[in-house]
Design a protein that fits this description.
CATH architecture of the largest domain: 3-Layer(aba) Sandwich
Organism: Thermotoga maritima (strain ATCC 43589 / DSM 3109 / JCM 10099 / NBRC 100826 / MSB8)
CATH class of the largest domain: Alpha Beta
InterPro entries: Glyco_trans_1, Glyco_trans_4-like_N, Glycosyltransferase_grp1
Structural class: alpha/beta
Protein name: Lipopolysaccharide biosynthesis protein
GO molecular function: glycosyltransferase activity
Number of helices: 17
Oligomer: single chain
Strand content: 15-25%
Pfam family, one: Glyco_trans_4_4
Strand order of the largest sheet: 3-4-2-1-5-6-7-8
Number of domains: 2
Length: 434
Amino acid sequence: MEKRGEVKEKRKLSILLINNYFPPEIGAASHLYFYLARELSKRGHEVTVLTGIPRYNIPKETYNQYLRRMKNKKFVIENISDCADIEVIRVRLPYIERHQLLRRGVEHFEIALKMFSYAKEYLRNKRVDVSLVYSPPITLYKTAWKVKRLKDAPFVLNVQDLFPQAAIDLGILKNPLLIRLFKQVEKKAYQLADLITVHSERNKEFVKSVLNGDGRKVLVMENWVDENEIKPGDKINDFSIKHGLTEKFVVSFAGTLGFSQDMEVIIRAANELKEYKDIVFIIVGNGVRLEESKKLAESLNLQNIRFIPSVPREIYPLVLHSSDVSLATLTKDVKTPVVPSKILSIMSAGIPVIAVMNLEGDAPKLVEKANAGFAIPAGDYKSLAEKILLLYKNPELRESLGRNGRRYIEENLSSRKAAEKYEKIFLDALRRDK
């Protein structure tokens, strides 16, 4: 085993990324860690990803293919096709439908247990200097903590969503006993982590409050996007041609249609603009709100809105290239200061973003600071329609806002910048853990 003093001065680290999601799964969490893993690897670090077999936003047949391939094995080792030097440890985990909320709650603990226990012997023989673990699920801190005990490797907890508070605000988590349980888990996770990264100042204040005001190990680390993979591109492309969008003014929403996302505000804005025959709304993605969204659009007899299933990571940039403006929407019940990753992707693609959410959060501040679009109050579909119409009538404004967003990403929120910052954070964690 490496001695801590030796590791401290090394620039080339052996880094373990722990995440419930990783490509080919489609979603912000999956893409975020893929981009980081690839950039850290480019910088000479040895990168290993500990995750499950694909289960989220993919055809169930993909999951079954993994099961057949694994046979009776508890994990499988693979390399991502376009990152052959990144090793991925995929453990066997159950496939659970997204609407099974109680089962998904139990799954949080099951994932944390199996991630470590199934891969333990393999990890025992691997060098691990430091771990970075994605939350949610918050329970994955247990996996990182056990790896720390096994390998004498500190772990950094990357808090993306403030669970359980976000679930409480949305009314998903109501049982007082479960709330108390998850709050205890949350506090334990924050206490045991060597460092904690959050993506905004208001998130930092929340985590500090859980730690009784102690913010010494809480760092703001804004999210990132691969500016080389998601960049400005031609509107006429395979996706826009396939879906007949090349001659349309396209307003897009691309991502998970989850409990947090406000789809109604998009559909009602589409209803306000239905007389404009060349304005079309596309909703690209799957999730628990998909069917109700389709029913609402049908009830309004809207011909200007299309629902398209989730697309693979490599197709996602084409969705943005096909768009003239793209949306990020959250319901008014989302009170935690979340910054949806799709905002960064939209800015990186060089198109305007309209954020429809509580204005006191950090995402509207980001859009304003970058001068990359507009932020309007949650649920305000009339203002959303007005802003879309403003951009429709002013191509120069669209181009200006798009350029501003792209410039801000390149200068502040690229995956290259993220890798540089995390290198320093990892070395800090190693020093603190001496």
